[in-house]
Inverse folding.
């Protein structure tokens, strides 16, 4: 017998409480004060990828020395031919207005002695244009947004609520394929972790802001929650996904064996003059790129990977000993304290660093207003593929992108408000079916598969790839998929099982995209296809 499923109805449903989700929630709440906005998150509202963004947010603030044209060109160069130029222009030109908005919400960015913003410079940027708050910029922006949300009466945040699936015609008994016209989102099924029951939330508009998928890899700067949930759910719902092969590895994560997530050493440290050195103490980046330590992330990560393999080491070093200590401590207090906690005084010793999975440049395919291929479903933030990043994200463009597309999704909804709110849902969404399932008896089946997945992705689908490795990864993932789906069909849903299932799907999409791309471009480097193709295309899955 099926358990009766609790039901909730809301006007706007926001999945995720990072900068993308909260920005959108605030805008629609203020514009539609009589509408109900529900924000759900699978842990606490402040545990997001946004919180871990150290470096800052890029924007043309100093118009005397910088320009939209320069920021656009830097973004296009980093994206290695795959950026959508129209989208790049939109983000760069609309970005400063969004930055001013979050400042008005109360976000505090560092200033110099003159009272001007203390702009930083990072890899791939031709000018100083990075606004930051110490080395915890994302956390500061999250704080300001959460404070504003708390003061907004028609926003309800539900913590510890895990989304299981997007509700579409599939759940109404219809056959849905990728060629189905007008696939529609009616809401979501969620696992309420407080009651351990499956509930359904019906919504007129749903926004995915579920973040990335860094947990597919052993070494990642992403928090434990970054399990590709939104991307996997959209793929299962037959929505369009693109460019998943472009996984950005941050070049400089603090090397601590067995520690996950890895502590990030922001690129801003190299922007302030930090130098990468190998085990011999040699500064090696000049061998790989004329921009040396400030080359784009894909180039720096591959250079470090090559040095590690050539020397047979598990890390290289970041040298900050020549930098003024007082300035370093003031700009990077958390990095300084973290290094000190493991016995490293950055003024006297090098910092051991190694690349770690950091950002997914692909994701749910969206248009210029954050609309997905599924009706009534929007996506923004890291889970979305807007066309901004192309084959490689320019440093500090992600927070900017999240705010710009949260705003553009809001604008699109305002323009179509009459149609959205006059629409009557006459469908009856069935309860979640638990018939034939049992309580999971062996958690080891899930935890071991999780470890296997991370090992497969790290060993075969990392910074440097080959056709043989990709083929082997796909075979291993196929077996994991079969085992996990059997577990999913026969046992009751748990967060651990859902996250494993989502990561296996995300891993499959990364491998499939990498196998499809018979060239090396941006973050995807395959030694069997080391040259770029004359044909530039997105991998839509």
């Amino acid at each position: 017998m099926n358990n009766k499923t609790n039901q909730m109805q809301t006007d706007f449903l926001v999945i995720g409480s990072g900068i993308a989700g909260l920005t959108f929630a605030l805008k629609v709440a203020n514009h539609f004060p009589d509408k109900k906005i529900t924000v759900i998150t699978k842990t606490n509202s402040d545990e997001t990828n946004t919180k871990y963004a150290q470096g800052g947010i890029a924007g043309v603030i100093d118009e005397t020395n910088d320009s939209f044209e320069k920021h656009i060109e830097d973004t296009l160069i980093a994206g290695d031919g795959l950026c959508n130029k129209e989208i790049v222009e939109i983000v760069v030109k609309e970005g400063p207005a969004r930055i001013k908005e979050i400042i008005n919400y109360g976000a505090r960015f560092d200033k110099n002695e003159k009272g001007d913003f203390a702009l930083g410079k990072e890899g791939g940027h031709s000018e100083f244009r990075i606004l930051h708050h110490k080395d915890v910029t994302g956390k500061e922006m999250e704080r300001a947004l959460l404070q504003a949300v708390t003061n907004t009466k028609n926003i309800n945040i539900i913590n510890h609520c895990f989304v299981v699936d997007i509700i579409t015609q599939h759940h109404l008994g219809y056959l849905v394929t990728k060629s189905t016209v007008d696939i529609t989102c009616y809401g979501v099924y969620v696992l309420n972790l407080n009651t351990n029951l499956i509930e359904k939330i019906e919504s007129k508009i749903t926004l995915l802001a579920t973040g990335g998928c860094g947990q597919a890899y052993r070494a990642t700067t992403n928090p434990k929650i970054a399990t590709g949930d939104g991307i996997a759910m959209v793929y299962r719902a037959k929505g369009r996904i693109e460019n998943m092969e472009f996984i950005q590895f941050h070049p400089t994560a603090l090397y601590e064996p067995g520690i996950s997530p890895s502590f990030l050493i922001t690129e801003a440290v190299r922007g302030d003059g930090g130098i990468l050195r190998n085990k011999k103490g040699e500064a090696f980046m000049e061998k790989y790129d004329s921009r040396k330590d400030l080359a784009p992330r894909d180039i720096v990560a591959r250079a470090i990977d090559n040095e590690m393999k050539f020397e047979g080491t598990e890390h290289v070093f970041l040298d900050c000993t020549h930098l003024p200590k007082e300035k370093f401590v003031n700009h990077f207090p958390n990095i300084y304290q973290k290094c000190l906690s493991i016995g490293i005084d950055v003024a006297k010793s090098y910092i051991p660093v190694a690349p770690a999975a950091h950002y997914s440049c692909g994701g749910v395919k969206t248009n210029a207003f954050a609309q997905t291929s599924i009706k009534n479903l929007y996506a923004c933030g890291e889970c979305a593929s807007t066309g901004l990043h192309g084959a490689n994200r320019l440093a500090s463009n992600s927070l900017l992108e999240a705010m710009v597309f949260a705003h553009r999704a809001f604008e699109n909804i305002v323009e179509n408000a009459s149609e959205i709110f006059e629409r009557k849902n006459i469908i009856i969404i069935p309860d979640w079916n638990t018939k034939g399932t049992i309580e999971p008896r062996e958690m080891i089946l899930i935890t071991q598969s999780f470890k296997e997945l991370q090992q497969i992705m790290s060993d075969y689908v990392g910074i440097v790839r080959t056709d043989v490795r990709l083929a082997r990864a796909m075979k291993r993932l196929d077996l994991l998929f079969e085992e996990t789906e059997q577990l999913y069909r026969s046992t009751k849903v748990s967060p651990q099982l859902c996250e494993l299932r989502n990561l296996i799907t995300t891993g499959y999409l990364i491998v499939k995209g990498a196998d499809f791309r018979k060239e090396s471009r941006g973050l995807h480097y395959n030694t069997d296809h080391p040259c770029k193709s004359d044909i530039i295309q997105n991998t839509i899955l």
User: Anything to note?
Assistant: Residues 205 and 484 are 31 Å apart (CA to CA).
